[in-house]
């Protein structure tokens, strides 16, 4: 009886939610259910911004920051939500990306700024990101997930057969959410054409930039089935955006700017690729010039560096190692905080000295999360060595900070991998090699073509190596056989 009573009330409760949460979308004009208010969107953006800056860092270039703020505010004024407290920032990351969070916070990486070849390409992506904000995509995604999950739970209450396949049903719901994301990306492409065109830029250049994205993706071997991607295929977007730009310009005849030379001159000298001062890998060793330490990387392991942590992992994905700064002013407090934060059961703990630095070495296992009072009971999988997370942790006091190096795998193979973890962690040491300490980053420099010729010929004349012609072609949005006229501005890579 209780189950039936609960189910009978559910449509009524959901009906109240729907009635109280219906609002008109500022972009589409359609009434829709949104469970996040505009004030909540702004608050979420304000809360997210410090974490984004802390984890990724800002790229310090006053001229570029002034440019992105000026263009961003001009576009925000003609958008569907000009009243939001917009902020525009350049993130110190080599990844080619741009993203937005609710409330008007928009971010471009220095990596994507280095790959734009004119202001119109930038403006198209800027319009796309502002479109995510004005169309309330984050709020709509959250609402879809909440209502979809509630509906799924309701179905499980009344249908024991559906409950048996709850995990598969949840996976199906996640696939549905991917389709929402693809729809939102396509909608933002349309908005990007509209906004960039309204402020006077040629939206065809936005389409051309999707050609650059496709080359980056293809060269990195990142092609995945369209159904498993949250973004539409770049090749499809290239064609669709060109069609939308053509339609817009046919209906709104005018002169649309590209501004290639002025943009290239503005990014002259921008850092390209990884910045060595933030850490770099060479000959299977990780060096951090700013923090003055180094340690070896396990043979054949892949790495990923960010301002907050350095990650190493084998290709089979059965283990990983992480380096980050531990929370705590002493080794003991850092150990206590780590045990509490990750819900660990300590199996072994010992003090030792690692290359002159005081350290604590711990072996621990992560405990299952306890069921919180008031939450529905969930059947927990029996804990076995194959599904128990086991860690080897080295807390090392060095230059006023406490560094944590974790080796993580499952308990059944921990013993086999522990020597690998130990070799990396216990070779953490001072970096004093002047060559590594003074390593300079690569930068984009803008040069004039000295003569007529193909792109490949001109790059060779400008001293670029043959093995980087494709990379330079991507950066310049050109092919090896693209004809170049004398005096044309081109990007080269140097130090």
TrEMBL record:
Biased segments, Low complexity type: 365-383
Domain (Peptidase M48) ranges: 68-244
InterPro entries referenced in this protein's UniProt entry, alphabetically: Mito/Outer_Membr_Metalloprot, Peptidase_M48
Gene Ontology biological process terms, A to Z: proteolysis involved in protein catabolic process
GO MF term set: metal ion binding; metalloendopeptidase activity
Record's keyword terms, sorted: Hydrolase, Metal-binding, Metalloprotease, Protease, Zinc
Entry coiled-coil feature ranges: none
Domain of life (superkingdom): Bacteria
Cofactor(s) named in the record: Zn(2+)
Ranges for region Disordered: 365-385
GO cellular component, one term: membrane
Descriptive protein name: Peptidase M48
């Amino acid at each position: 009886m209780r189950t039936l009573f609960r189910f009978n009330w559910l449509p009524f409760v959901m009906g109240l939610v729907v009635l109280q949460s219906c609002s008109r979308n500022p972009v589409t004009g359609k009434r829709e259910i949104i469970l996040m208010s505009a004030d909540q969107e702004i608050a979420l953006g304000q809360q997210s911004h410090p974490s984004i800056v802390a984890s990724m860092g800002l790229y310090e270039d006053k001229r570029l920051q002034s440019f992105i703020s000026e263009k961003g505010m001009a576009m925000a004024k003609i958008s569907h939500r000009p009243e939001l407290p917009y902020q525009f920032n350049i993130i110190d990351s080599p990844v080619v990306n741009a993203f937005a969070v609710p409330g008007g916070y928009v971010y471009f990486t220095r990596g994507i700024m280095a790959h734009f070849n004119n202001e119109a390409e930038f403006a198209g992506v800027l319009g796309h990101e502002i479109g995510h904000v004005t169309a309330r995509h984050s709020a709509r995604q959250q609402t879809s997930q909440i209502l979809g999950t509630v509906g799924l739970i309701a179905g499980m209450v009344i249908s024991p057969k559906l409950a048996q396949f709850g995990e598969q049903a949840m996976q199906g719901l996640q696939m549905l959410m991917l389709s929402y994301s693809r729809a939102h990306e396509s909608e933002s492409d349309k908005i990007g054409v509209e906004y960039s065109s309204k402020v006077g830029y040629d939206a065809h250049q936005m389409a051309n930039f999707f050609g650059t994205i496709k080359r980056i993706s293809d060269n990195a071997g990142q092609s995945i089935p369209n159904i498993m991607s949250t973004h539409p295929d770049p090749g499809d977007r290239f064609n669709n955006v060109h069609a939308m730009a053509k339609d817009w310009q046919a209906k709104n005849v005018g002169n649309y700017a590209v501004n290639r030379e002025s943009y290239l001159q503005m990014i002259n000298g921008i850092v390209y690729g990884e910045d060595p001062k933030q850490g770099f890998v060479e000959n299977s060793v990780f060096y951090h010039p700013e923090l003055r330490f180094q340690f070896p990387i396990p043979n054949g392991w892949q790495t990923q560096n960010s301002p907050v942590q350095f990650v190493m992992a084998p290709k089979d994905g059965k283990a990983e190692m992480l380096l980050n700064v531990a929370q705590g002013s002493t080794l003991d407090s850092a150990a206590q905080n780590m045990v509490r934060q990750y819900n660990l059961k300590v199996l072994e703990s010992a003090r030792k000295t690692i290359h002159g630095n005081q350290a604590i070495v711990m072996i621990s296992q992560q405990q299952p999360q306890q069921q919180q009072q008031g939450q529905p009971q969930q059947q927990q999988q029996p804990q076995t060595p194959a599904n128990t997370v086991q860690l080897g942790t080295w807390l090392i006091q060095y230059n006023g900070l406490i560094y944590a190096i974790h080796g993580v795998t499952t308990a059944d193979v921990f013993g086999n991998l522990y020597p690998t973890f130990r070799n990396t962690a216990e070779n953490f040491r001072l970096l004093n090699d002047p060559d590594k300490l003074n390593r300079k980053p690569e930068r984009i420099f803008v040069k004039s073509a000295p003569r007529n010729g193909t792109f490949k010929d001109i790059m060779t004349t400008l001293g670029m190596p043959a093995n980087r012609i494709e990379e330079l072609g991507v950066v310049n949005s050109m092919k090896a056989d693209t004809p170049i006229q004398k005096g044309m501005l081109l990007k080269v890579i140097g130090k």
